[in-house]
Amino acid sequence: KAGVTQTPRYLIKTRGQQVTLSCSPISGHRSVSWYQQTPGQGLQFLFEYFSETQRNKGNFPGRFSGRQFSNSRSEMNVSTLELGDSALYLCASSLGALAKNIQYFGAGTRLSVL
Amino acid sequence: KNEVEQSPQNLTAQEGEFITINCSYSVGISALHWLQQHPGGGIVSLFMLSSGKKKHGRLIATINIQEKHSSLHITASHPRDSAVYICAVTVMKTSYDKVIFGPGTSLSVIP
Q1: Using beta carbons and an 8 Å cutoff, which residues of B are at the interface with A?
Q2: pLDDT at B98 over 90
Q3: How many percent of chain A have pLDDT more than 90?
Q4: Which of A23-32, A83-92, B41-50, B58-67 is predicted with the least confidence, judged by mean pLDDT?
Q5: How far is CA A23 from CA A3, A14, A55, A112, B100, in A?
Q6: Quick one: CA dihedral B33, B36, B40, B42, positive or negative?
Q7: In whole numbers, what is the pLDDT of chain A averaged over residues?
Q8: Minimum distance, in Å, between the CA of residue A91 and any CA atom of chain B
Q9: Using CA atoms, how far apart are residues B70 and B9, in angstroms rounded to an integer?
Q10: What is the arithmetic mean of pLDDT over A54-68?
């Protein structure tokens, strides 16, 4: 069974631009969660999508948004990029709800904002 | 004070040593996760615990819900165990769930 796939692996953008990251979960998994990892803040929870609905959300500004498609694939969008958005963005999928299921992580997308 | 804390922050061990990494938390949780992150970023989920103890190969994880504390033990450590170990808790609320991560413990095992 294929693992969680994130594309692209690396991305360079400039301030003010927007970016879309993609995550394909493990087949059969209905929950996709997104995380941001920076040296200063560590790992932080962005949001979770389950059956095309955003179920949970962390403490990030509205510039960070996402969606999930009927095949469970998910995209995350960041608008009006800031230098501080430079980070490793990880997605994880699980069979069921975030709170009670093991998460399987993708390799991440490393975003650099110049 | 952070809701999830880990100790030690950094750990260097000789190959073969028994290693313990600790995690304490201050919130009510539905589950606690131990994660392993190698250089390059990939994260592997090692354990998910809501009570008691779990064992997988040389790894053992325990949790004490009353004391809000968990430990990850590595027996007969090996250089390939060198990684960052992250404790994370999932919190279930009425209207939302969330994940809170600890700061991580960087482990280096020397041959």
Answers
A1: 30-31, 33, 35, 40-45, 48, 86, 88, 90-92, 96-104
A2: no
A3: 84
A4: B41-50
A5: 11, 22, 17, 18, 21
A6: negative
A7: 94
A8: 10
A9: 15
A10: 93
Q: How much is the mean pLDDT over chain B?
A: 93
Q: What is the 3-state secondary structure (H, E, C) of A13-69?
A: ECCCCCEEEEEECCCCCCEEEEEEEECCCEEEEEEEEECCEEEEECCCCCCEEEEEC
Cβ-nearest to B104 among A42, A55, A58: A42
Q: Which residues contact B31 (CB under 8 A, 6 or more apart)?
A: A99, A100, B48, B49, B50, B89, B90
- How many residues belong to chain A? 114
**Do B97 and A37 lie within an 8 Å CB cutoff?**
no
